[in-house]
């Protein structure tokens, strides 16, 4: 069976035993599962002996973090085993070793998860997203990057639904009264605020993943920012640094040069460009020596 790491630090590793079908749970869906929890090969607890399914709402921090991450990745009917370690396991219960949790995702109630959004007006959804972003900032300052990422992602969920009604209609084009007076100026102002919060949370996610050493995710979220604001110096800096870590030196240099043009006072960018130029020159010298050796031009 294929093994997949669900977190940058491999704190949650998933192995699919039986594939499922259908849509994965949304951010605040209610899920129904059976599970068996093992540590050191011994069963600690299991729901298998009862006839009742275990259910909980995602995003409420009511279960072990690793279990929620595992369930979010599953489809209805799927059976998977997650190996949880570090911050994702059962430290609060005095268990400090890795544990294995086997989960069968029985069903998902997506509609219950949507009610949180649907009860809100567009302005209330934006306000909720902003609060999640601010809470993520607090966790970031405390160097709790995983918790910060969770809140930034929740903020993005609310932003996604700002202009969506219960029938899936875009409230910017449909005649829906929850847009206030529905005037073009009001909708445009709300769109601009949503865009600003999206850019901020995408940039913050890129920075969190940089702290976690996940360069692919850094590039992804930097690209999300640049799709909204092609002249965003922070996103260009984040992407340039990630590309440098990938060994894509010339692409990294282009990003950092553009970031420097947009923000010439940023000392970090200037310093990184200097280091990058040294890496590029060093690579070219190594390449030249290698070719010289191949054709007999190396030093004897």
Short description:
The chain has nine helices and seven strands, in the order βββββαββαααααααα. The protein is of the alpha+beta class and 300 residues long.
Description of the structure:
By secondary structure, the protein is of the alpha+beta class. Strands 1, 2, 3, 4, 5, 6 and 7 form a seven-stranded antiparallel beta sheet that branches. The longest helix has 29 residues, at 184-212. Residues 175-179 have low confidence and may be disordered. The protein has nine helices and seven strands; from the N terminus they run βββββαββαααααααα. It has three domains: 3-110, Roll (Chitinase A, domain 3); 120-208, Methane Monooxygenase Hydroxylase, Chain G, domain 1; 213-280, Tetratricopeptide repeat domain (Serine Threonine Protein Phosphatase 5, Tetratricopeptide repeat), CATH 1.25.40. The radius of gyration is 24 Å and the shape is globular. The N and C termini lie far apart (53 Å). It has helices at residues 65-72, 110-118, 122-141, 145-160, 184-212, 215-228, 233-246, 249-262, 267-294, and strands at residues 3-5, 12-18, 30-39, 42-46, 54-57, 79-84, 99-109. It is 51% helix and 15% strand.
Under CATH, the topology of the largest domain is which?
A: Chitinase A, domain 3
Number of strands: 7
Domain count: 3
General form: globular
What is the count of DSSP helices, taking H or I runs of 4+ residues? 9
Give the helices and strands as they follow along the chain: EEEEEHEEHHHHHHHH
Strand content: 15-25%
CA-atom Rg in angstroms: 24 Å
């Amino acid at each position: 069976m294929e093994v997949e790491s669900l977190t940058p630090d491999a704190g949650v590793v998933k192995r699919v035993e039986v594939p499922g079908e259908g849509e994965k749970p949304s951010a605040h869906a209610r899920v129904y599962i059976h599970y068996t929890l093992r540590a050191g090969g011994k069963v600690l607890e299991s729901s298998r002996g009862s006839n009742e399914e275990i259910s909980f709402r995602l995003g409420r921090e009511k279960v072990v973090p690793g279990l929620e991450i595992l369930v979010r990745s599953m489809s209805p009917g799927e059976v998977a085993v997650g190996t949880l370690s570090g911050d994702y396991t059962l430290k609060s219960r005095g268990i400090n070793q890795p544990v294995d949790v086997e989960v069968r995702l029985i069903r998902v109630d997506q509609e219950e998860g949507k009610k949180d959004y649907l009860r809100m007006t567009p302005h209330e959804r934006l306000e909720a997203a902003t609060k999640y972003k601010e809470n993520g900032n607090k966790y970031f300052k405390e160097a709790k990057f995983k918790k910060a990422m969770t809140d930034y992602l929740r903020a993005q969920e609310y932003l996604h639904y700002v202009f969506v009604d219960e029938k899936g209609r875009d409230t910017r084009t449909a005649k829906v009264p929850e847009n206030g007076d529905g005037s073009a100026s009001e909708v445009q102002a709300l769109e601009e605020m949503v865009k600003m919060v999206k850019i901020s949370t995408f940039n913050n996610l890129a920075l969190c993943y940089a702290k976690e050493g996940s360069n692919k995710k850094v590039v992804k979220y930097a690209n999300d920012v640049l799709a909204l604001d092609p002249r965003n110096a922070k996103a260009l800096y984040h992407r340039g640094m990630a590309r440098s870590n990938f060994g894509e030196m010339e692409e990294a240099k282009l990003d950092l040069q553009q970031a420097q043009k947009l923000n010439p006072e940023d000392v970090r960018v200037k310093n990184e460009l200097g280091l990058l130029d040294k890496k590029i020159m060093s690579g070219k010298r190594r390449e030249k020596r290698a070719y010289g050796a191949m054709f007999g031009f190396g030093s004897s």
